[in-house]
Amino acid sequence: MTLPDTMNPSPEMVNDLRRQFQQKMEKSAAKIPPGGFHENDLNRIFANDVWLTKFLENNDLDMKESLKQLWETCIWRKTANINEICEDNIRMDYVHEGMMFPRGKDIDGKTLFIYRSRLYTRGSRNLDDMKRVFLYWLERLIREANDDYLTFMFELTDAGLSNVDMDYTRYIITTLKNYYPYSLNYILVYDLPWILNATFHIIKKLLPAKAVDRLKNINNKSIRDYVSEESLLVPWGGMDDYEFKFVPEKKNLQLPLENNNSIIHNNNNTLKKVHFANLSPTESPMNESSNSNFENVDGEMLRIIPQSTIAFTKSGNELHGNVEIINIDTKAVTYKIKTTAPEKFRVRPSTGVLSPGGSVTINVVLQQGQQVTTLGREKFLVMCMALGNDLSTNTHDLAELWKNTAANSASVEQHRLKCSLPTNLDDGSMRNGMPAYGGAGGDMYGSGAGYSGNGADKQFSHFQQAVSQLRDSNQRLESQVKFNQTLQWISLALFLLLSVAIVYILKIEIKNSTSQYCLRE
User: Fold this and answer.
1) Is 427:439 a contact under the CB 8 Å cutoff?
2) CB 212: neighbour CB atoms within 10 A?
3) Which one of 217, 313, 464, 516 is least enclosed by Cβ atoms within 10 Å?
4) Looking at beta carbons, which pairs linking 3-8 to residues 24 or more positions away fall under 8 Å?
């Protein structure tokens, strides 16, 4: 996001980030997803400075953090097939509904990307398809704006609790934060109903501290401070009577590399083109090998898929997630899986041995009766260490080896994983008490301080609590509304019955009075 106090990276810093990324590709070829990084992403790295500058600005010129975020972004874009998202592989019926679309400019001349909340009812559409529609628009607008900033507007006019899907909102914000650094000029929340105030505060908590100033809660009076007069739609008090109609993207906006070439930065700080086929196997970013001939220059023994988060999905009455671990070392390794809540999960297999190039898929299942809403707080630790030729690999000996080896030993490699909540679950049948944390001496088991996350994990935990509270409040409110509606119908029915009874009684009384009068006459 554009901030007044942004530190501008020098050309030397940009070149240094490019050089370090190239070195990491050469050294960590086995960690690159199959097929290598996408050529469009490599082109953005090696052909110009715009993308790299954004990563440096986003991390306050911290080279290590910038490289880490750039690397993780390239892996995410490759594994999620971001560059392949187009009109041929998304739900075009969702697009034509006009839930989100670009229109006009903000006060700084940046493209306005509008999301109309009232057109989406929570649970009415497939969430994964909705995510891809969002990514389609985001990628398209960035291409059309030549990597310039965008302004994202949540339009909440006539929206209610059923129109706010916090899982989807969280996905939008975290995706922008993690993989699209410095892409937003503003985040505008327009016409926020008082009943959705909690939504605004949750969005605010999701943003990094220096981006909070870019989040604006606006109404029909203050909107002119952020949206240009000519871009004001009629519902916002403007004169633009635009009605959404989808226009296909022009096909000449993609920037593929010709003949699968990349642009490599050499020692003289000049750019030269190098064909991937001309690189040696250990230099090639397309190298997928993880056999015994691979030299593990980073010193890591395992590749973990996914790298940082276990995504749980619902299957029947169970929630489960999978983690694949691959031995990228030249020696056999033994691995062990630990968790902050051993009573909460069933992990199979939790320990074992991997030969060079070998892999295993770890299945993690949430035990029945555990509280689903606290799943996002838990973490897993994948540990491994090399096995000498003289060490036994039977179950008993491996258990003794891990029992006598401290988790923080120099011979133990560690990989930490968080848990993510599934988006389509009913946790009513899975509630129980809060999970207990354990661990002594820095380990995750037993009593004591236990394994704890960093500040970001704590914020995520607070967010999960806020989402849970919002859902509970939403359910209570919906139940109350339904009860009130039922009570109104019952009251109306009783009123009608009482009215009919009164009319009937009056009719009988009038008839009797008339008969008595006639008799007296």
Assistant:
1) no
2) 14
3) 516
4) 3/210, 3/211, 3/213, 3/214, 6/57, 7/57, 7/60, 7/61, 8/57
pLDDT, one tens digit per residue, over 37-75 is: 999 999 999 988 999 999 999 888 999 999 999 999 999
What gap in Å lies between CA 44 and CA 74, rounded to an integer? 11
CB 220 within 8 A of CB 237: yes
Whole-angstrom CA distances from 271 to 147, 154, 267, 454, 512 are 21, 42, 10, 40, 109
Give residue 255's pLDDT band: very low, low, confident or very high (50, 70, 90): very low
Tell me the residue type at 74: C
Give the burial string for 396-435 (b: 16+ CB within 10 Å, else e): eebeebbeeeebeeeebbebebbbbbbbebebeebeeeeb
Strands 313-315 and 333-339: unpaired
Q: What is the DSSP letter of 421?
A: -
- Torsions phi, psi of 174, nearest 5? -65, -35
Per-residue three-class SS string for 430-463: HCCCCCCCCCCCCCCCCCCCCCCCCHHHHHHHHH
User: Which of 411, 464, 396, 409 is CA-nearest to residue 435?
Assistant: 464
Using CA atoms, how far apart are residues 349 and 345, in angstroms rounded to an integer? 12
Long-range contacts at 319-322 (CB < 8 A, ≥ 24 apart): 319/365, 319/366, 319/372, 319/375, 319/422, 319/425, 319/430, 320/363, 320/364, 320/365, 320/366, 321/363, 321/364, 321/419, 322/361, 322/362, 322/363, 322/364
Q: What is the DSSP string of 356-383?
A: TT-EEEEEEEEPTT--GGGGGG-EEEEE
* Rounded-to-integer distance, Cα 386 and Cα 384, Å: 7
pLDDT per residue over 170-229, tens digit each?
899 889 989 998 888 998 999 888 877 777 777 777 777 777 888 889 998 899 999 988
Angle at 495 between CA 505 and CA 506, to 5 degrees: 15
Residue 274 banded pLDDT, cuts 50, 70, 90: very low
DSSP calls for 218-246: E-TTGGGGTB-GGG-BGGGTSSB------
- Collapsed DSSP state (helix, strand, coil) of residue 481: helix
Identify the pLDDT of residue 80: 92
Burial class (CB in 10 A: 0-12, 13-18, 19+), 221: exposed
What are the structure tokens assigned to 39, written together?
């050529």
Q: Which residues contact 28 (CB under 8 A, 6 or more apart)?
A: 297, 298
Please give the pLDDT value at position 521.
59
Looking at residue 304, the DSSP 8-state letter turns out to be E
pLDDT band at 459 (very low <50, low <70, confident <90, very high): low
pLDDT for residue 7: 64
